[in-house]
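Consider the following input, taken from an annotated entry for Disulfide bond formation protein C (Pullulanibacillus camelliae).
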Amino acid sequence: MSKSLYFAWVVALIATLGSLYFSEVAHFIPCELCWFQRICMYPMTIILGIACFRNDRKIAYYVLPITIIGGLFSIVHILEQKVHAFAGICKQGIPCSGEYINWFGFVTIPMLALCGFILITISMIVTLRNR
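Applying the prediction step yields:
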């Protein structure tokens, strides 16, 4: 089994479980941009799990576009929270500018999601190079 493929699956699993913890246990209501990030992350838990079981390294071709799109949503969300010029992108429901957590002054939920997408992207590139 490819270590980078397994690592990507573990990252997706932790990100999914962390997201579910924030919403279901901590009762943080997800905003619109959070939902788009979840739409990108949640299926990767299953897709990468199956790829690990089958040792299917070609899955990287399918996962990379999803991680890049999810990462872009995370960047927009971080900009919404941290840069006042981007405030107001998300106007319906829960405001996307809200910060449920702010560890060390910069680690917010979309920052955690971006880290997950970046780690999975790097893992997929390593997986493709090791083919």
